[in-house]
Design brief:
Strand order of the largest sheet: 2-1-3-4-5-6
CATH class of the largest domain: Alpha Beta
Number of domains: 3
Strand content: 15-25%
Oligomer: single chain
Structural class: alpha/beta
Largest sheet: 6 strands, parallel
Helix content: 25-40%
Number of helices: 13
CATH topology of the largest domain: pyruvate-formate lyase- activating enzyme
């Protein structure tokens, strides 16, 4: 019997992508590796630190894996250990603690450590890199593939700790991205470009997101871009997407619909500007799915400021929203601001979540009776589940792995029931 490894990634799509790349590297070295929390000989925990709750879950995961195998060796990497390596050093069975950089090097270090029996943990958290580490090569499966094109962030929003943990923005060379996309196209029918701040792609290496989109036009798969800032939306980018097989789905980070709150957040736009950018998208993509993130109860947010956000999201007519009550992060500027009760933050979040559900249903209803291309990705309760180009969840009888046109029939579960043509 060979050894079994679990690489468990918490948090964002970039972390998931990096975790899959570690799994692929272990498999090439003859280790049976998975991303599912199950019994194994050793565990790599790829942690998240986007909120205090994410840090807590990252630390708790050590206990979770030791319930599966109390004798297992545990290795920790990622944002939470970059933020506070000491928080993991006294956890039982933790052998090695690294951070956000050199994750792929961890595979060899783990395999070497497995040969030794001495107790205790050691930290090898290193300085953040200045250039893109182009060594993340996940295995591409029959469902959609994520391709990491960028790392780090220069924005320094007042609530966010990520730039301190991931470093400055660094871009991957376009030819390397295209090469991986071509490999992925042999296995999947959809790729997603992902990064910590995808909007900043190319600025550090004399490239641009629009140019990358055009280069990827020759890769015969459906393509998406992960989260974007409204400031990066230009006619050039939109037409490049329209002409090169990119989906009409834009996850456009908002965070607040109040100008004064956006200013305190150190976000570089106003609600008025954001709305103009949305209108620009809809001129090129009339049926675009526009999704977003919103933080409620940010430092000192008044009822009036929250009411401005409520009114603004209705004006934009999002197709879906991810809503989070504000969570203070030690080490960020906003942590020192005046705060409002957590109960109020959650109440406001609940109100926006309900508004988001209504808008999502209205968006789905507006497309009933139309035909749309759906990529069937998984099975749920005997039905295949996939997404349209504008990111409506579709339940159908398409075989998983198929990309086909269907007719959207009626509202169903979290999306729409479709009829195959």
């Amino acid at each position: 019997m060979g050894m079994k490894a679990v690489v468990f990634s918490l948090g964002c799509k970039v972390n998931q992508c990096e975790g899959q790349a570690m799994i692929e590297k272990f498999c090439k070295k003859g280790i049976d590796a998975t991303d599912k929390l199950e019994q194994a000989d050793f565990y790599i925990l790829n942690t998240c630190s986007v909120t205090g709750e994410a840090d807590r879950k990252s630390r708790q995961t050590v206990s979770r894996v030791l319930k599966l195998n109390p004798a297992a060796k545990v290795y920790v990497c990622g944002c939470s250990s970059q933020n506070d390596a000491v928080a993991f050093s006294d956890k039982p069975n933790v052998r090695l603690i690294s951070g956000t950089s050199k994750k792929m090097d961890l595979v060899e270090l783990v395999l070497e450590d497995l040969k030794h029996e001495e107790n205790g943990s050691r930290s090898i958290v290193s300085e953040l890199p200045l250039e893109f580490e182009d060594n993340v090569f996940p295995k591409h499966t029959k469902t959609r593939s994520y391709i990491k094109i960028q790392d780090g962030c220069n924005n320094f929003c007042s609530y966010c700790i990520v730039p301190y943990l991931r470093g400055r923005s660094r871009s991957r060379q376009p030819d390397s991205i295209v090469r991986e996309a071509e490999i992925a196209a042999e296995q999947t029918k959809e790729i997603v470009l992902t990064g910590i701040n995808t909007s900043a792609y190319g600025l550090d290496i004399g490239e641009s997101l629009s140019a990358l989109v055009r280069l990827l036009g020759r890769v015969p798969v459906r393509k998406r871009i992960g989260s974007l800032e409204c400031t990066v939306i230009t006619d050039e980018l939109l037409y490049a997407m329209a002409e090169n097989g990119f989906c009409e789905h834009f996850h456009l980070s908002l965070q607040s619909g109040s100008e004064s709150v956006l200013k305190r957040m150190n976000r570089k736009y106003t609600p008025e500007y954001y709305l103009k950018q949305v209108e620009k998208i809809r001129k090129v993509f009339p049926y675009a799915g526009i999704t977003t993130d919103v933080i409620t109860g940010f430092a000192a947010e008044t009822e009036e400021e929250f009411a401005q956000t409520e009114a603004f999201v209705q004006e934009v007519r999002f197709s879906d929203m991810h809503v989070f009550p504000y969570s203070e992060r030690k080490g960020t500027k906003a942590c020192g601001f005046a705060q409002i009760p957590k109960r109020v933050r959650q109440e406001r979040a609940n109100r926006l979540i309900e508004a988001g559900k209504r808008m999502h249903r209205e968006f789905c209803e507006s497309l009933l009776g139309t035909c749309a291309e759906v990529y069937a990705e998984t099975y749920e309760c005997g039905e295949s589940v996939g997404y349209t180009a504008n990111y409506i969840k579709v339940y159908s009888d398409l075989p998983v792995g198929e990309l086909k046109t269907v007719k959207l029939k009626n509202i169903y579960k979290e999306g729409v029931k479709a009829e195959t043509l």
